[in-house]
Amino acid sequence: MKSILIGAINKAETETFRRVSKGRLNGEENITAALLALIESKCSDVLEKYNDVSDRFQYEVISKDFPKNTMEPVVGADFAISLRKFNIWRGIEKEVLIKSLLVQAKLPSNTDYGKLNEQIGFMESITKESYVAVYDIDEDRVFVVKYIDVIAANYRASNVSKEKRFTLADFFSDIFVCKKAEVGFDANKLQNKEDVLAYISGHEFEQQLEFVVKEIIE
Predict the structure, then answer these.
(1) Could you give the CA distance from residue 17 to residue 5 in angstroms, rounded to a whole number?
(2) Interatomic CA distance for residues 163 and 145, integer angstroms
(3) Which terminus of the chain has fewer CB atoms gathered within 10 Å of its CB, N or C?
(4) Which residues on adjacent β-strands are paired with residue 79?
């Protein structure tokens, strides 16, 4: 199942950069929204073709976008990814695990390193499981680096050494097998300090990536 989902994520990445190369996408926010939407679509498509027989465990994968003018200045991230694991036994669904992480997107052409410094500071204050995703337009791919490695590279994310970079597929693979994200951190409960009603659990967010895997992934 993990391999099937990673294949879908690779297709979403390829299609996103195809749109970028054709001039149909530009800017960090637009690329982020399109990439998350395609990941949701591609993963949902392959999951529909998978015939689950156990229905014992479910993994719910959700992504929340943080609007530029309201939540991003508070959280520092463009989006969060959360994974919930449910144990389903005799018709009763019990949540047994939740993990979340924060991600700030970055275009190499954006040289506002002072802003990135500030964004990373906000993310770090919330969770040590914070990352920067670099949209490498020249290579038509995404690479993801941990925030501490960006700090060490003087906030030049593109200068982080290749051995410390994750491909988008590897990044999601680690999420699926619970090697990334902070246990007990629920991104759904992040609230805007100025408007506590903006981001409470159950509220409709601007963008959502959500799919459910009905199998033990590892």
Answers:
(1) 19
(2) 10
(3) C
(4) 65, 103
Over the chain (218 residues), the average pLDDT of each successive run of 10 is: 89 95 89 91 84 66 83 90 80 79 93 94 94 93 96 94 95 87 85 43 41 50
Sequence-ordered alpha helix ranges (H) in the chain: 2-21, 28-49, 72-75, 113-126, 147-152, 168-176
* 88 token code pair: 């389903």
Structure tokens at 81: 């990814």
- pTM confidence score: 0.84
Q: What is the distance between the alpha carbons of residues 104 and 36, in angstroms, rounded to a whole number?
A: 13
Rg (CA), the chain: 17
In angstroms, the CA 8 to CA 10 distance is: 5
